[in-house]
Design goal:
Elements lengths: L2 H4 L1 H9 L6 H7 L3 H4 L1 E4 L2 E4 L7 H13 L2 H10 L25 E2 L2 E2 L1 H19 L13 E5 L6 H9 L9 E5 L4 H8 L7 E6 L6 H16 L11 E5 L2 H7 L6 E3 L16 H28 L6 H15 L4 E6 L7 H13 L17 E6 L8 H6 L6 E8 L7 H18 L3 H7 L7 H11 L7 E8 L2 H22 L7 H17 L10 H12 L3
Parallel strand pairs: 5-6, 5-7, 7-8, 8-9, 10-11, 10-12, 12-13
Antiparallel strand pairs: 1-2, 2-13, 3-4
Bound molecules: 6-O-phosphono-beta-D-fructofuranose (F6P).
6-O-phosphono-beta-D-fructofuranose binds next to loops.
Length: 545
């Protein structure tokens, strides 16, 4: 057993998990439950009262957090300690939203000045492009941005741009290309005019196959459509920590925006990786996004554990994963602009906490990161919510909704809100056999049939959910919301004693993919791998089944 599962608190939580009354009873016995189990900070309101939790549960979970030295671990992250131990890196995405007056030391150097310089460089670039001073090779202003990147160098900019659609004030269009499938970039290029298109290649390492290949294709298209080598500087920019490689690739040094080793890919939208966002919403709005995240950082660093939103959310999710065998967690956004957020949180959490050994290499004897998935309300209600209500798996849910819509038409938003709140209520209270029978009392069915149908209509309820609200979706509230989930992920990793900041599993896939590529292009059929891999490669080489 690991130290964690041996601990008295872990054992106490395990015993306690068997004795929690149904949430219906918890609500009935305490009319102040909503008030007691909700909190608001940084423009966000969290209702966590619909959880299988009593005051004792919360006490025990917070004791577990204290025993795991969560406080000290939070301090270590903010202080720039090397907490990504396998890659020997500090984890300082929080420095990207720091203020000018702060001083944050990484590897012996204050990094705030370079963060500010990069923001200023972004500002100049955004101003130049959006004020139409930046001209393409035929003298026309830029109308379209193509952001090429993958993983953290893609999802953050894409999802945040989508979420902040009401704030697109610059008149530019932005297209995102990630997948190495040639169809993705080909379909985009069909829509574009090389004279007015600006490509931004985003790759921290400048070594990611998909991004390099897509950028080479974009460059070849640009040259084939009439641009010359000397025009490339007017149409290609890059964001990378590998400036030498970007220059070698042919990107003009002035158009290269720096990144740093102390920013993980999935935490990088706050850096120049967010350039496509800034080009769409303008720098003032981009800075407001940073400000929202910075407010959440301050809350996370300073609020007592019992009033700390990322801590409460992280510990409650861990509660279900470790003590109720919940294998997944669903994120349901009741706002069309936030439809991409579940995919963003999926990458954030699953790449961070999909780990099986502790920091010292011991195999864990407890579940770590769950599968994160989700979608847009109310669409899911007519599909997978059935399983949430009546399936055999326990799936804790987060419901996210702004109180005010950017598009307040008729009764739409009232209906959206009623669906959101109605779902959390249904998940919590369920429907008893007696209630189901009562509903059927006026039907013409026989008593036997009524009983049968009633059994099918029973919903156990007691399904946990959090509800997160904000006044309105703004750059600032979105910044707070994303930072909340970043820190929630950190909290869980800290308790599980895993490294939430490396991704060796993903790296292996990259290495083997390159090896397969060599075998696909080799003179002879593949024979050296396992029979399945050889067989698949050889089928591909032949091009037919
Ligand atoms: O920005 P890069 O170096 O191209 O990497 C892209 C992505 O690849 C990963 O390393 C693994 O998929 C992510 O963490 C990262 O965001």
């Amino acid at each position: 057993m690991t130290i964690l599962t041996q601990s008295t608190t872990w054992q106490a939580l395990s015993a306690h998990s068997q004795n929690i009354p149904h949430m219906r009873e918890l609500f009935a016995s305490d009319p102040a439950r909503f008030t007691k189990m909700s909190l608001s900070s940084c423009g966000l309101f969290l209702d966590y009262s619909k959880n299988r939790a009593t005051p004792e549960t919360l006490n025990l979970l917070l004791t577990l957090a204290q025993e795991a030295k969560l406080d000290a671990k939070i301090k270590a992250m903010f202080a720039g300690d090397i907490i990504n131990t396998t890659e020997k890196r500090a984890v300082l995405h929080t420095a990207l939203r720091s203020t000018v007056d702060q001083s944050i030391i990484a590897e012996g150097q204050d990094i705030v000045p370079e963060v500010q310089q990069t923001l200023n460089k972004m500002q100049q670039f955004v101003t130049s492009v959006t004020s139409r001073l930046w001209k393409g090779y035929t003298g026309k202003a830029i109308t379209d941005i193509v952001s090429i990147g993958i993983g953290g160098s893609f999802l953050g900019p894409k999802i945040v741009s989508q979420a902040l659609r009401p704030y697109w004030i610059t008149g530019l269009n932005c297209h995102f290309v990630a997948n190495v499938d040639g169809t993705s970039i080909s379909e985009k290029l069909k829509l574009l005019d090389p004279e007015t298109t600006l490509f931004i290649m985003s790759s921290k390492s400048f070594g990611t196959q998909e991004t390099l290949t897509n950028t080479l294709t974009a460059k070849a298209w640009f040259l084939a459509k009439g641009g010359s080598q000397s025009d490339v500087a007017k149409h290609f920019a890059a964001v990378t920590s590998n400036v030498a490689k970007a220059t070698e690739f042919g990107i003009d040094a002035d158009n290269i925006f720096p990144m740093w080793d102390w920013v993980g890919g999935r935490y990088s939208l706050w850096s120049a990786i967010g350039l496509p966002i800034a080009l769409l919403i303008g720098m003032d709005n981009f800075r407001a996004l940073l400000k929202g995240a910075q407010q959440m950082d301050t809350h996370f660093a300073n609020a007592p554990l019992a009033e700390n939103m990322p801590v409460i959310m992280g510990m409650l999710s861990l509660w279900y994963g470790n003590f109720f065998n919940a294998q997944s967690h669903v994120v349901l956004t009741y706002d069309h602009y936030l439809r991409g957020l579940p995919a963003y949180f999926q990458q954030l959490d699953m790449e961070s906490n999909g780990k099986s050994v502790t920091l010292n290499g011991t195999h864990v004897d407890y579940s770590t990161g769950p599968v994160i998935w989700g979608g847009e309300g109310t669409n899911g209600q007519h599909a997978y919510h059935q399983l949430l209500h009546q399936g055999t798996a326990l799936i804790p849910a987060d419901f996210i909704m702004p109180l005010q819509s950017h598009n307040p038409i008729g009764e739409h938003h009232d209906q959206l809100a009623s669906n959101c709140f109605g779902q959390t209520q249904a998940l919590m209270q369920g429907r008893t056999l007696d209630e189901a029978l009562a509903e059927l009392s006026k039907s013409t069915l026989s008593d036997e049939e009524k009983l049968l149908i009633a059994k099918h209509k029973v919903m156990q309820g007691n399904k946990p959910s959090n509800t997160l609200l904000m006044d309105k979706l703004t750059p600032e509230t979105l910044g707070s919301l994303i930072a909340l989930y970043e820190h929630r992920t950190f909290v869980q990793g800290a308790i599980w004693d895993i490294n939430s900041f490396d991704q060796w599993g993903v790296e292996l896939g990259k290495t083997l993919g390159n090896d397969v590529l060599t075998r696909i292009g080799a003179d002879q059929e593949a024979t050296a791998l396992d029979a399945s891999s050889n067989g698949l490669i050889n089928l591909y080489r032949r091009g037919k089944i």
